[in-house]
Design goal:
Helix content is 45%, strand content 17%. The protein has 30 helices and 27 strands. Helix 6 crosses helix 7, helix 12 packs across helix 20 and helix 14 runs antiparallel to helix 16. Strands 13-23-24-25-21-26-27 form a seven-stranded mixed sheet, with helices on both faces. The chain has 857 residues and is α/β, with parallel strands linked by helices. It has six domains: 100 residues, MutS, DNA mismatch repair protein, domain I (3-Layer(aba) Sandwich), CATH 3.40.1170.10; 134 residues, Nucleotidyltransferase, domain 5; 149 residues, MutS, DNA mismatch repair protein, Chain A, domain 3, CATH 1.10.1420; 101 residues, Orthogonal Bundle (MutS, DNA mismatch repair protein, Chain A, domain 3); 237 residues, 3-Layer(aba) Sandwich (Rossmann fold), CATH 3.40.50; 36 residues, no CATH class. The protein starts with a helix and ends with a helix. The radius of gyration is 36 Å and the shape is elongated.
């Protein structure tokens, strides 16, 4: 217990699994937690004494069953093993922590999800920038970047790390910026130093500088990366040869999507448990590596047209050559998770059966490589050239290990016959043992006339002869009695002792030899780690592109034309997720969308609830996204000018935990959009202003639409609204066009056509929707009466007149009538404008607004 307490003080924040003989034991508070999480019995050690303490444990061979449960419960687990053979010491066995497993640092298959990365992240708060790094120790992927809080927040949402390392001094700052939904671990500030981090990284990668990785100028990124490597060392992970590269994430290489957009579009995170994500629909990958890569592609859509077209070319090839795609699928089905197998090899945690799986996977890749090179398809052949055949490796493993090698090397029969002559000889001695024992039994029965005599073995005194009491008077004098049972006696002889020594010695030597040969094999595999990692990446790419081809054929997708224009033209586009959710026999109503910066910059979409306005907005963004990851898209045809930013303001939800109302959340998200516009942005706005009063809501929506129209970027926008008054904007603003999602109105019901047609809509049909929802008849009756009353009083027309009046007054600036109240208003506006804080774009917009007023006048 003294030894336990000394080790526990070094790992106060971790549960200590303390190896005692054949069990892992937990004590004190750890035992209480373990018993609750694992559902095992809580007992006591030293009951009634001063040293009484809670105790809970499980057999050591059940570690892989219980460890995942502890880690998934958010616990850090320190595994304390016996560091020497108990037979070799008379003192207390040396023990020490051999591994600290945390949610972000795990190699156990039961903890990991095959098609998801398990990232450990580190966030460093610099003076101007925030550094961020991600490492998946189970695959060796290491990524770093730096930027402002918004950029870091987006990356955290995209990569969804299992654990984040943060400086203790920035605990509150981290929560303010990024919330408390992440598992965080706080480290001392002295660890977050640039010099130390630089030294750790150059030491690990064995390089003089970090220029070769392109991260030399990322001061904050280097610190966050160094902290991760320091943490791995502290958690007893020292064999990290598979972390052979660090990749810089360039913010400008990928389509910008803020966290609201990623959430609103439900790309790969569900907003409700029953929701279906875009990833669910387009993921037809077979290998775990492909599944993880596809998720990364979806999180980081490309802006480089050549890269996108390269992907499209391979997808087209697989669609045209169906037999090659079937062949690829068949081979992929035989490939295990190469990235994680190679990581286990590097960390020394790979078992014999997994090494055989590694060999079988490399064998299954060979035909893929050969067929792709022979395809004469330039892009596909070039991908295949990046696959190393690893023939020597396959041969070495195949000639050393048994095909049906066990998981545990201690089980024996791991090494093939013929690999080592001494091993073969010892096995021969061990296997001939049964025949020798049978010979002794026959001889002694004949000599003593004891017909029931038998030889057996136990761990207490080894091999023994058992004689039933009815024959014990026939036992020879030179047999030594060792145990008396109710109905029999057990004896040993000199001959049995000599034989036992020979057999047990042979078995011990067999175990030692097999282990030595196995470890030598692993050492021979180490130089191939980087090559196999590259091969795994190529296979993952082929898997993703094959997945795109299968989804395109299955769901009738087309290849979009991508160019450097700023035009989006989608003909008969469909929502990829909704169309898969429709009842059998029901067809999705496809729609056309045309957006450009010259004639149709803003499409104002009106229409009743449930008519499909939100679906139309989302499907446009999803089609653009699919196009820019290299996939085919759900449409009859599509021409897509490259988009660099996608912003959505769709749906509303209170952020009560942060003290923000629906309207506050809505305004925050909209402000973020308006402050980050670009010429290639795609903006989707749904029901802006509905979180406040009608007059406020219409005013804000109008002002936002006007701002977007007048902004020099002329960002392409889809604006869905309930405020039919906004249809009047098309009269004043030339690039705003009105469309509505049509409905068919019968006597007492409404049929949703879901077709986008030119022109504005004048009705909401909210009461019809309430009827569909099962609202009680008295409520519906009363609502209809109130609607009639309001329509008679022309409430809507009154609002429109006020808006029109406000708009007209805005542009009737008179220099003759100096007492014009509007002139006074504009004068006050100019005087209250802080010119020093105006950006050049805001100043130009202000000037453009005055110019437009004068032109109208």
């Amino acid at each position: 217990m003294l030894q336990y307490n000394n080790i526990k003080t070094k790992y106060p924040d971790a549960m200590l699994l303390f190896r005692v003989g054949d069990f892992y034991e937990t004590f004190g508070e750890d035992a209480k937690v373990a018993a609750k999480v694992l559902g095992i019995i809580l007992t006591k050690r030293g009951a009634g004494s001063e040293s009484e303490t809670a105790l809970a444990g499980f057999p050591h061979h059940s570690l892989n069953t219980y460890l995942p449960k502890l880690v998934k419960a958010g616990l850090r687990v320190a595994i304390c093993d016996q560091l020497e053979d108990p037979k070799m010491t008379k003192k207390i066995v040396k023990r020490g922590v051999t591994e600290l497993v945390t949610p972000g640092v795990a190699l156990n298959d039961e903890v990991l999800n095959a098609k998801n990365n398990n990232f450990l992240a580190s966030v460093h708060f610099g003076r101007k920038m925030i550094g961020i790094s991600f490492l998946d120790v189970s695959t060796g992927e290491f990524i770093t970047s730096q930027g402002n809080a918004e950029y870091v927040d987006k990356l955290l949402q995209n990569f969804r790390p299992s654990e984040i390392l943060v400086q203790k001094d920035f605990k509150l700052r981290f929560r303010e910026l990024f919330g408390n939904q992440f598992y965080t671990f706080y480290l001392d500030d002295w660890i977050f130093k640039e010099d130390a981090s630089y030294e750790i990284l150059t030491g690990h990668f064995k390089v003089a500088s970090l220029k070769g990785f392109g991260i030399e100028d990322l001061n904050e990124g280097i610190i966050s990366s160094g902290v991760i490597m320091h943490y791995l060392s502290e958690t007893q992970h020292h064999q990290l040869e598979h972390i052979s590269n660090i990749q810089r994430l360039y913010e400008n290489d990928f389509v910008w999507m803020d966290k609201f957009t990623v959430r609103n579009l439900e790309l790969y995170q569900r907003n409700t448990p029953e929701a279906v994500t875009l990833l669910d629909v387009i993921d037809a990958t077979i290998s775990p590596m492909g599944g993880r890569m596809l998720k990364r592609w979806l999180a980081l859509p490309l802006k480089n047209i050549e890269e996108i077209r390269t992907r499209q070319e391979v997808v087209r090839y697989f669609i045209q050559k169906e037999e090659d795609l079937e062949f690829l699928d068949h081979q992929l089905d035989q490939i295990s998770d190469l990235e994680r197998l190679i990581s286990k090899l590097a960390t020394g945690k790979i078992n014999p059966r997994e090494v055989v799986l590694l060999k079988n996977s490399l064998e299954a890749i060979l035909p893929i490589r050969e067929r792709a090179i022979n395809s004469k398809h330039k892009t596909l052949a070039s991908l295949a050239q990046g696959i190393d055949p690893n023939l020597e490796l396959i041969k070495k493993i195949g000639s050393t290990l048994e095909e049906n090698a066990p998981i545990l090397i201690s089980k024996g029969n791991v090494i093939r016959t013929g690999v080592n002559a001494e091993l073969d000889e010892l096995r021969n001695i061990s296997s001939s043992g049964k025949a020798y024992l049978d010979h002794i039994v026959e001889r002694e029965i004949e000599r003593t006339q004891i017909s029931s005599l038998k030889i057996a073995f136990n761990n207490v005194f080894g091999y023994y002869i058992e004689v039933r009491n009815t024959h014990k008077d026939k036992v020879p004098e030179n047999w030594i009695r060792k145990q008396t049972l109710v109905s029999a006696e057990r004896y040993i002889t000199e001959e049995l002792k000599e034989y036992e020594s020979k057999i047990l010695g042979a078995q011990e030597k067999i175990g030692h030899l097999e282990n030595t040969i196995y470890q030598d094999l692993l050492q021979n595999l180490h130089p191939h780690i980087l090559s196999i990692q590259n091969t795994a990446k190529m296979i993952a790419q082929l898997d993703c592109l094959g997945s795109f081809a299968k989804v395109a054929v299955r769901n009738n997708y087309v290849r979009p034309v991508l160019d450097n224009s700023t035009v989006i033209e989608i003909n008969n586009g469909r929502h990829p997720v909704i169309e898969k959710q429709l009842p059998s026999g029901e067809h999705y109503v496809a729609n056309d969308v045309v957006l450009n910066r010259d004639q149709q910059q803003i499409i104002m979409i009106t229409g009743p609830n449930m008519s499909g306005k939100s679906a139309l907005l989302r499907q446009t963004a999803l089609i653009v996204l699919l196009g820019q990851i290299g996939s085919y898209v759900p449409a009859q045809n599509a021409k897509l000018g490259i988009v660099d930013k996608i912003f959505t303001r769709v749906g509303a939800s209170d952020n009560i935990s942060m003290g923000e109302s629906t309207f506050m959340v809505e305004m925050n998200e909209t402000a973020n959009i308006l402050n980050n516009l670009s010429e290639r942005s795609l903006i989707l706005l749904d029901e802006i202003g509905r979180g406040t009063s009608t007059y406020d809501g219409i005013s804000i929506a109008w002002a936002i639409a006007e701002y977007l129209h007048e902004h020099p970027t002329r960002a392409k926008t889809l604006f869905a609204t309930h405020y039919h008054e906004l249809n009047d904007m098309s009269e004043t603003f030339e690039r705003i066009k009105n469309f509505n999602v049509s409905v068919k109105e019968l006597k007492d019901k409404v049929i949703f056509i879901r077709k986008l047609v030119p022109g504005g809509s004048k009705h909401s049909f909210g009461i019809h929707v309430a009827k569909l929802a099962g609202m009680p008849s008295p409520v519906l009756h009363r609502a209809n009466k109130m609607l009639s009353h309001l329509e008679k009083n022309h409430a809507s027309e009154e609002i429109q007149e006020k808006l029109k009046s406000a708009s007209d007054k805005d542009i009737q600036l008179s220099f003759i009538n100096l007492d014009d109240p509007l002139l006074e208003e504009i004068k006050d506006e100019i005087l209250s404008t802080n010119i020093d804080s105006l950006t050049p774009i805001e100043a130009l917009m202000k000037l453009n607004e005055i110019k437009r007023m004068l032109t109208k006048k």
